[in-house]
Task: inverse folding
């Protein structure tokens, strides 16, 4: 069973930066099946960043150009670099994985929270204006 643990959240002022990390006990077949999802108070979960395939990433429109998704296969970690943070980025951020990992079969939607079946406990990001 894959276990995920996030770190790196915190409180920053608007315009600041944070780097979130996710340590996985094992990759769910491929790091392609991992992504970041966030949930703001009173709102539904929203896919933030994920992998279309092993070489391409995708982001929700509101974070494009500001957030960068990366992975370290040797360390089994997933990272989310967040720059130019805005108050509307305030949310609990979750690292998530899809099991089974079948991205290569098509019908793969890395920005849909329902795609993911394994979740970390989350890390809070708070951005003040």
Result:
């Amino acid at each position: 069973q894959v276990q995920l643990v996030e770190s790196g959240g915190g409180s920053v002022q608007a315009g600041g930066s944070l780097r979130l990390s996710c340590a996985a006990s094992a990759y769910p077949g491929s790091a392609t099946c991992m992504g970041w999802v966030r949930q703001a108070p009173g709102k539904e979960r929203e896919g933030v960043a994920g992998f279309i395939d092993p070489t391409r990433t995708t982001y929700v429109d509101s974070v494009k150009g500001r957030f960068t998704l990366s992975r370290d296969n040797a360390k089994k970690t997933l990272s989310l670099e967040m720059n130019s943070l805005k108050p509307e980025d305030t949310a609990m951020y979750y690292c998530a994985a899809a099991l089974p990992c079948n991205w290569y079969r098509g019908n793969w939607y890395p920005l849909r929270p329902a795609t993911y079946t394994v979740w970390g406990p989350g890390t809070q990001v708070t951005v003040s204006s």
